[in-house]
Design brief:
CATH architecture of the largest domain in chain B: 3-Layer(aba) Sandwich
Order of helices and strands of chain A: HHEHEHEHEHHHHHHHHHHHH
Helix content of chain A: 55-70%
Number of strands of chain A: 4
Number of domains of chain B: 2
Number of helices of chain A: 17
Structural class of chain B: alpha/beta
Oligomer: heterodimer
Shape of chain B: globular
Largest interface: A-B, 26 and 33 residues
CATH superfamily of the largest domain in chain B: P-loop containing nucleotide triphosphate hydrolases
CATH topology of the largest domain in chain B: Rossmann fold
Strand order of the largest sheet of chain A: 2-1-3-4
Mean pLDDT of chain B: 89
Strand content of chain A: under 5%
Order of helices and strands of chain B: EEEHEEHEHHHEHEHEEHH
Number of helices of chain B: 9
Structural class of chain A: mainly alpha
Distance between the termini of chain A: 27 Å
Largest sheet of chain A: 4 strands, mixed
Shape of chain A: elongated
CATH class of the largest domain in chain B: Alpha Beta
Low-confidence stretches of chain A: none
């Protein structure tokens, strides 16, 4: 058994020596994903951001012909900019700037006063998505203004303004920054788990394919040590690397998300030490499982390069349940908590949302994941006893 | 002492080793001589327990490689063919690592490693990373690594491959010293001169079976030739060759 520790120490020492792969594993890995995700998140927050609250810039030609309307629009955060233009010039202006531009005809005031339909022209290039939504908002604002005038006219004629509203439709937009960010946040657990697994890749491949390619495997097998202990020692080293990487990644995320302001997403605003520690603890059981899986796959390949390709592909397997969960909108329940990687995803999300999972779910997650890890480790150990390992 | 009885190894339908029986005594250098593909490496690999025989058994100082491979390994120092090092460890660390796996204490490990570095004239590169080692430096390190636990039995598979003259001389001197100390040395080669220069005992192997085991002079006498090479060719039945000078 002590041989496990001996192999472990040597693997760690060798890994620490290899500055370049160490830099990639412990610096690039844990920083890259948090950086990418926080950019994506802040864009999701800003772009989708509650439309009604955002100001609209509107160019108005002949603003002097409709002062009341413009005063009304200004109340609804429309930034009016008066421009000097006839109809042809207005069109040309919109072609350059996409608009929108409101053109007030000469007879606008007169027709309004006479109780006749007063026309307005709204120029815009609606092939621009951003412009499209602005035009819709402007149209409904102007409609609202028209509706007010209509009701005033009815009152002036002694009629009930409710006659004009046979149906009251309330369109309620429940889109929140939180729901818009849901997809991006779903990627957060994906990023944490993938970065963590990747960090063990080097040692896991080195344990079999690497040793074989270098020709150091055969001398190693002549040592008076049970073969499975050799592979356990290597897996242990991979586990330590993965743990360090996991901690670094979660800390990086904590800083990144704190910077964005998680509370704006309606999530636990304090992605503080407690939540970070919870995420690390929740993910820990997946580490030995991942290390064993990668070692197993690498043992079947013929060269280091081939191992890199296959293990890289195999790393996608733990991410598949996450994708399903996102598409199908799965929620945690005991049966699903038995699925490794999916249960870790649920744990991460519940911690971020500050919606604690039942203790039983956590036990199931850790138990099922560790059980799978133990089985995989056993088989990895067995593989090391096969002669074919020598290639 | 190493003894093998009727070792058999098959890879699929190919029989690589067919009932090999041999004996390598203490205080002697025994050479395993044979053409490429004769089964030398496979035989050695079974002896140092990396391959499991499909038949027969072998004993290292009386310990069966089948029933107690771990104890058998403790008594062997092995230099496999093309033995590789850990590139991110120094020569010294490579040697010490095997010492730890043999369970040597730190002080013993250090002392033995230092001793071997001196003995194999490795001082100039002992504390450099193994990354850029020459073939000679690699073999020396691998050899020191194999000897760190002072094994009674030393098995070497084609140890002189790719070595320059100076390295070969160092190796020969070391093997002679180990013999004088009473170790049992078994090594394989397909280079006649090397075997002739070193061995007390020769095992000629061809087509997966042992054709002859005897002292070099005896083999020459048996084949009725003055040259060992001629004896080798006749015994292995490889056909007639040009007479050698």
């Amino acid at each position: 058994m002590r041989a496990i520790g001996r192999v472990f120490r040597k693997e760690l020492r060798e890994t620490l020596r290899d500055r370049r792969s160490l830099f990639t594993t412990l610096v690039i890995g844990p920083l890259l994903m948090p950086a990418l995700i926080s950019v994506a998140l802040s864009m999701a927050i800003r772009h989708g951001g509650a439309p009604a609250s955002r100001p609209i810039a509107l160019m108005v030609a002949h603003a002097e012909r409709a002062p009341q309307l413009l005063r009304f629009l200004r109340q609804y955060r429309v930034h009016v900019r008066a421009v000097q233009a006839d109809r042809a010039a207005a069109r040309a202006l919109v072609e350059r700037s996409h608009g929108p531009l409101l053109y007030v005809p000469r007879d606008f005031g007169a027709r309004l006063a006479a109780g006749k339909p007063a026309s307005l022209r709204l120029y815009a290039d609606e092939s621009e998505r951003a412009v499209q939504s602005r035009v819709q908002r402007l149209a409904s604002l102007i409609g609202l203004y028209g509706g007010t005038i209509a009701r005033l006219r009815l009152v002036a004629r002694g009629l009930d303004p409710q006659l004009l509203a046979p149906i009251a439709l309330h369109a309620i937009d429940i889109s929140t920054p939180q729901s818009r960010a849901a997809l991006v946040l779903g990627m957060l657990s994906y990023a944490i788990l993938l970065t963590m697994l990747m960090s063990g890749l080097y040692i896991a491949i080195d344990a079999t394919a690497g040793e074989r390619e270098r020709g150091s495997l055969e001398p190693l097998l002549t040592m008076p040590v049970r073969r499975e202990y050799l592979v356990y020692g290597k897996m242990l080293a991979a586990c330590v690397m993965m743990t360090v990487c996991l901690v670094l990644t979660v800390v990086a995320f904590a800083f990144a998300l704190h910077h964005i302001g998680l509370d704006r997403l309606g999530m636990s605003a304090n992605f503080g030490p407690a939540v970070a520690a919870g995420i690390v603890l929740g993910c820990l059981p997946l580490i030995p499982t991942g290390a064993a899986l990668m070692t197993l796959v690498a043992a079947y390949t013929r060269s280091y390069r081939e191992a890199q390709t296959y293990v890289g592909l195999v790393l996608l397997i733990p991410t598949l349940p996450l994708i399903f969960a996102n598409i199908m909108g799965l929620r945690p329940r005991p049966a699903l908590m038995a699925v490794p990687s999916l249960s870790q995803h649920f744990i991460i999300m519940s911690l971020l949302r500050a919606e604690p999972l039942p203790a039983m779910d956590l036990v199931i997650s850790a138990g099922a994941t560790l059980a799978l890890g133990a089985v995989l480790m056993f088989f990895a150990g067995r593989l090391y006893r096969r002669e074919k390992l020598l290639g | 002492m190493i003894e093998a009885r009727a070792l058999v190894k098959r890879f699929g339908t190919v029989t690589a080793v067919e009932r090999v029986t041999l004996r390598a005594a203490d205080g002697r250098i025994t050479g395993l001589l044979g053409p490429n593909g004769a089964g030398k490496s496979t035989t050695l690999r079974m002896l140092y327990t990396v391959l499991t025989p499909d038949g027969g058994d072998a004993w290292v100082d009386g310990i069966s490689i089948l029933t107690d491979p771990l104890q058998a390994r403790r008594r062997m120092g092995v230099l496999p063919h093309g033995a590789g090092l850990y590139p991110n460890l120094t020569a010294r660390e490579n040697i010490e690592y095997f010492g730890t796996l043999h369970g040597l204490t730190r002080s013993v490990r250090r002392a033995r490693t230092g001793e071997l570095i001196e003995r194999l004239e490795m001082q100039s590169f002992a504390d450099r990373l193994a990354k850029g080692f020459s073939q000679g430096q690699r073999v020396k390190t691998a050899l020191a690594r194999a000897l760190v636990h002072q094994p009674r039995n030393v098995l070497l598979d084609e140890p002189t491959n790719g070595l320059d003259v100076m390295a070969v001389r160092t190796l020969r001197r070391l093997l002679a010293e180990l013999r004088a100390e009473g170790h049992c040395i078994l090594f394989s080669s397909h280079v006649m001169q090397e075997v002739a220069a070193l061995c007390d005992e020769l095992i000629i192997i061809a087509g997966g079976t042992v054709i002859a085991q005897a002292a070099p002079q005896e083999l020459q006498a048996r084949a009725g030739t003055a040259s060992l090479e001629e004896a080798f060719v006749r015994l292995t039945g490889l056909g007639t060759s040009e007479p050698t000078a």
